[in-house]
Amino acid sequence: MASEAKVSSPTNRDQLEISAEVVQFSNIALGVGVVALGAGVALSLNDVEFLFRSYLVAFMYVLSIGLGSLWFLTINHLVGAKWWIVVRRVPELMAAQFPVIALLSLGIVLPMALVDTASEAPIQGLYVWLSDAQVGASHLLQHKVPYLNKPFFLIRFAVYFAFWIGLSTYFLKRSIEQDKATGEASIAIKDHLTKISAPSMIAFALTLTFCAFDMLMSLNATWFSTMFGVYYFAGCLRAAYCTMALVLMWLQGKGRLKDYVKVDHFHDIGKMMFATTVFWAYIGFSQFMLIWYADIPEETAWFHARFQGDWRTISTALLVCNFAIPFFGLLSRHAKRSRKILAFFAIWILSFHYLDLYWLIFPNGGGEAPFAPTQILFLVGVLAVFFGVVARRAKGVNLVPTNDPRLADSLAFENY
Fold first, then answer.
1. Which own/partner contact pairs does 131-136 have at CB distance under 8 Å and 24+ positions apart?
2. Core-most of 97, 316, 354, 392, by most CB within 10 Å?
3. pTM of the model
């Protein structure tokens, strides 16, 4: 709940500007990212299918942060929220990096584009619908050819990223313009962003859902679930809120935003971390319950593979560690207002978000749960590149939209 009191904006400009220290962080992060990705590839050349599968987990992880950030911007512009103004620039900067995420996607999409469907290649071990022989041997896959074929997939993928890049870039561009606008011009920008967010939300829902179908659900091309896109969406929300909390805390540790982002704002972010934890569990249970109840072999086989051997342990770990522990840990008001507790659970949730994606992607290859250091190298690599570019883009940009007409309300925000 926001207080009706109006307060003046803090005047300390040093809190709004990225220092040379952060630019140095960008250089180090980009260097670490390139080295980690190169080492991951070099260490996985003896098993290229494992390389692709490991990289796919890392890529879908960083994509989830970008998508969750873009959703956060769209929904808050749409509903005209006030509390979020002081934290808005962080998700704007993260969402605006879809060109970098598109570049990172080439590790998976380029082999898909170049593969000869009449031959045998490691990428076809992930996406069997890229193999003419596999499709020819499956009556069910033959029925899915109008959708699951290489040209149509590449067209869809280009459409997804064209929309995400366009929308996120536009949000940041107009937001920065608002920093220089005053009076009616600032209000006009706010109203315009609200108007475009309604159709954008519909397009966002469709592109995210079909991307989840294409990149994740089609790993097992004979399995289908209309709830799968929502399941990935729930993970995107959790990843974005947790990342936002950690980035804001890191910035405050560097002396930035101390007079802007208060404990009440972290409290609200904590509420969303809690709410999306419940949402993730609800969608996961609903998908499982409906498939279990229907007991259709084509559907139950997907869960059956995840209830065998090591995968049973991982399934149980997700239930306990990705839901029960953060649910009870974030339940109290005190936990959401304690930065140490909030930071702990943000890191905890982000860690098990990776395990969740691992659980979605690896069992489709059959066998026990594999692990190798290259999986960590790929994750470190894509995250380092992503945040390195985020930091570099933040140079010269205010960390708060200083001329947004709702800034005073956001500064006066109180959680009861």
1. none
2. 97
3. 0.95
